[in-house]
Specification:
This protein is of the alpha/beta class. It has a single domain, classed as Rossmann fold (3-Layer(aba) Sandwich), CATH 3.40.50.300. Helix content is 28%, strand content 25%. The protein has a 7-stranded mixed sheet with strand order 1-7-6-2-5-4-3. The radius of gyration is 15 Å and the shape is globular. The two termini are 21 Å apart.
């Protein structure tokens, strides 16, 4: 599958994309979110959580590393490795989370790529311009594996309806 790119024009659209990801997610899916600070990674995850039925606020796990939302119709495990000390995963049972029948979302995955499975969906979120108040983004979908290619097709079909 060729890489697909999508222009997102607002925070609401980013949350709508998150909802489309959630609506087409399956147990054991792994979603990697790359982008600068303020790119929209947590905003997307908020839309994802809402679509999965998470009732409490979905917050960035920057300081806690992992936030669990087991009450969702598909358990959501939201991770942020921005502050992970020197690639030290010893305090996190990453394989345990990946083995659970839920959806794992990882922000700043570049710090732990060597510890991840070969199949995942990576999204790279880039500002269209460098203005901090701009809400325009380009989301570059990079699926690894057949399941993730199918996930992208379903997400884009739903988002573009």
């Amino acid at each position: 599958m060729n890489r697909m790119k999508l222009e997102v024009n607002s925070a609401d659209d980013m949350q709508r994309l998150g909802a489309a990801l959630a609506n087409n997610a399956q147990a054991h899916d792994l979603l990697l979110l790359n982008g600068d600070l303020g790119a929209g990674k947590t905003t997307m995850t908020q839309g994802l959580g809402r679509a999965l039925g998470v009732r409490r606020p979905v917050k960035s796990p920057t300081f806690t590393i992992v936030r669990e939302y087991r009450e969702a119709k598909l358990p959501l495990f939201h991770m942020d490795f921005y502050r992970l000390e020197s690639d030290d995963l010893s305090s996190i049972d990453l394989n345990g989370y990946l083995a659970e029948p839920g959806l794992v979302v990882i922000e700043w995955p570049q710090l732990i790529m060597k510890d991840l499975p070969d199949e995942y969906l990576q999204l790279i979120i880039t500002r269209v311009d460098n203005s901090w108040n701009s809400t325009k983004r380009v989301v570059d979908f990079q699926p690894h594996g057949k399941r993730n290619e199918e996930w992208v097709k379903a997400v884009l079909a739903e988002y573009n309806r």
